[in-house]
Amino acid sequence: LSSPLLRAIETAKIVRRSLLVRSAVQIVDELLPDASPDRLLSILHDLPPESCVVCVGHEPQLGIIASILLSGRATASFPMKKAGACLIELPIPVKPGRGVLRWWLTPSQLREMGRRRSSEF
Prior knowledge:
CATH architecture: 3-Layer(aba) Sandwich
Low-confidence stretches: none
Strand content: 5-15%
Radius of gyration: 14 Å
Number of strands: 2
């Protein structure tokens, strides 16, 4: 899923290619910076079991969504850096506060991983 803003769409396409995902990037207004977190939670809630979704969006909204998924509150601090990423495992159906943080990577960590991966080929 991607915000309709250009940079987010470009990033989502890069992620899609890197992960060898076959489905197209789905553009959703629910990932705009000022969108209500409840709207994105509704999309996540309606996903079929065993879904794997990448959300490409903007701060502060992504940090608020992470906060809700992990703690059940929008007020916990989970700021995402530009070009950072995290993996949150969610129960189906999605319930606020029930997410499990599997990893949280900074942009510099992701760049280093990319350098190592490209040197292996």
